[in-house]
Amino acid sequence: MENVTGEGISDQIERFQTQLQMDGRGRKHRILMVSDFFFPNFGGVESHIYYLSQCLLKLGHKVIVMTHAYGNRSGVRYVTGGLKVYYVPWKPFLMQNTLPTLFLTFPIVRTILIREKISVVHGHQAFSTLCHEALMHARTMGYKVVFTDHSLYGFADAGSIHMNKVLQFTLADIDQAICVSHTSKENTVLRSGISPEKVFMVPNAVDTAMFTPSPDRLSCDEIVIVVISRLVYRKGADLLVEVIPEVCRLFPKVRFIVGGDGPKRVRIEEMREKFSLQDRVEMLGAVPHAQVRSVLISGHIFLNSSLTEAFCIAILEAASCGLLTVSTRVGGVPEVLPDDMVVLAEPAPEDMVRAVRKAIDMLPGIDPQVMHLRMKKLYSWDDVAKRTEIVYDRAMQSPQTDLLERLPRYLRCGAWAGKLFCLVMIINYLLWCLLEYLQPTEGIEEVPDIRPVHARLESVDDTCETQGKGI
Amino acid sequence: MKNRAVEMSSGVYTYKHHCEGGFDIHEIYIKRSKFRVLFSYVGEIFLFANVLHALLLKESLCINSFWSISFAFAVAKCLKYKPVKKESLLIMPTFGVQLEQHFWSGRVHRQFVPVGKLLKPVLNEHVTPITCYWSLVLLLHSEDKLVRVFKKVYPPVKMMVPIWKALDAFTNYGGMGNSVALQPNPLLINVEQGCTAT
């Protein structure tokens, strides 16, 4: 038997330390995205998770998405780029949210975390039940957790107070949080009491390859204003009812295209009838996302009348198509576009009409192609993925804590809520011990990775060589 | 020609593969849980004791007796343990595949899938509200449901991969003989890398 000399031991230690440093520097993460909102449902959160996951896959990380079942879509699905999606067969209960069960999702969350060898759990959206429960279970099991908040929320009404308490519970023990705008960060810090140093600002982005301007520039003989949003109170549909007749009265050559559906559509139809604007206001109804670009490039100005927005992807898409934007000055909207691309107004009809007038005056100086190129530089999902990667690295560097160190953080959530939260976490920990006994970690089989195509070809060659040698 | 038998163990499952009489036989043996058997007997004794207690009482049968007997029956039903001794997959060249479940009580349940109906074997990731596991299933012509190869047991995926490969070779060559089906094939190597095919 060969003797291991002191020199050999030193070399081994040195090599091990080098290996550790290399691992720390270039380590790839295995990320589990959790939310109640994912395709085939459609919205800003769904798009954010999808595009972010695609770009993280391109950076070499492994990304898995966990959501609830959508109709018959249940089980494991693979979408573009090998993105694996777990449609867990929990039925949606209210507005695409699963029923809050607090503990019942622990077994499936634990199984997925172990079999996929997850290192970071990334939850999305403050009112996603599955997100809150998964983050709680992941923290109990000692995983690093990151949370992204996609919406602004109030402080005064009963629903907001309850939601803020739930958010406080989730963020009391979070590693890092992400908000999509500085206004959203301020809102989240105030609502949950999380330390501001833990909150990163990573904006949304737009798929500029999908939203390109029209090749030939539109003439200004007739000015078309495009509105695409859900026709609900939050999106300012009531504001539209006041603004559209006034703009049509003041500017005879203005025409409106309104895309989207919702409860307030009837009010807009009534407005059209009342002011005899059938030939100047075109109602498209619900617009599939694949057709949004063709609607946008038929207009000169994009009108956004939202009453509250953390970020606003719609105005990004419009600007990417070369449209000048008129928007209400609410939430994070002023942060989204440079001043020469957007005209901001208070959410009042008179101010909106003034802003539209100003936009019409600015129109001759707008070049859609130049605007598109600027958008391509300003907002890119690759940049968002790189920033999110930094957040993951910071989360991995945070210290490991056990239950006794985490309970005081929950106690600070409130006089009664703190004790209740501690009780919930203790029960969750005991449930984890029970699950470890019933189904040990060693018994859960890890999933083999599907390698990218080029790696597969290489491995095929290697295997052929090996077989050749075997023969 | 009898091939050398292959054996693999993992936890309570043991995988054996051998050829016999021209058939390719894959078997998964399951260790019997002594505690489960003991609990099963305890449940039966509990039911028996309740029935005797009701019958031996001097008073006539009352509602309490019925409730206690029903409860004991429910407990015995829950604790009842029908252990599976092994599950077998027989690949019969030219004919098809036969799925068998052998119980310790001696009962055998068989299901035959003709080769003409067999479309493709698939290693499926099965997600339930509680857990997630692998299962080997068969895609059949003109059927909208998958047929599970192992109905009562949940063997690990590393045991199912060789069975899946054998079935895949069987379906690829339309049920031809063993000598061709079991030959290593470069085409299978590519599929081999993607053994999580869904």
UniProtKB/TrEMBL annotation, chain A:
Keywords: Glycosyltransferase, GPI-anchor biosynthesis, Transferase
Pathway: Glycolipid biosynthesis; glycosylphosphatidylinositol-anchor biosynthesis
Superkingdom, taxonomy of origin: Eukaryota
Enzyme category, top tier: transferase
Coiled coil: none
Residue intervals of the PIGA GPI anchor biosynthesis domain: 68-157
Classification via Pfam families: Glycos_transf_1, PIGA
EC number: 2.4.1.198
Any one of the GO CC terms: glycosylphosphatidylinositol-N-acetylglucosaminyltransferase (GPI-GnT) complex
GO molecular-function term, one example from the UniProt record: phosphatidylinositol N-acetylglucosaminyltransferase activity
GO biological process: GPI anchor biosynthetic process
Acetylation recorded as keyword: no
CDD domains linked: GT4_PIG-A-like
Limits of the Glycosyl transferase family domain: 221-361
UniProt protein name: phosphatidylinositol N-acetylglucosaminyltransferase
Species this protein is from: Oryza sativa subsp. japonica (Rice)
Lineage, uppermost ranks: Eukaryota, Viridiplantae, Streptophyta, Embryophyta, Tracheophyta
Automatic annotation (TrEMBL), chain B:
One GO CC term, this protein: glycosylphosphatidylinositol-N-acetylglucosaminyltransferase (GPI-GnT) complex
Residue intervals passing through the bilayer: 38-57
Stretches assigned to the Phosphatidylinositol N-acetylglucosaminyltransferase subunit H conserved domain: 88-151
A single BP term in Gene Ontology: GPI anchor biosynthetic process
Keyword annotations: Membrane, Transmembrane, Transmembrane helix
Keyword Hydrolase belongs to the record: no
PANTHER family the UniProt entry points to: OS01G0166400 PROTEIN, PHOSPHATIDYLINOSITOL N-ACETYLGLUCOSAMINYLTRANSFERASE SUBUNIT H
UniProt name for this protein: Os01g0166400 protein
Native source organism of the sequence: Oryza sativa subsp. japonica (Rice)
Taxonomic lineage from the root: Eukaryota, Viridiplantae, Streptophyta, Embryophyta, Tracheophyta
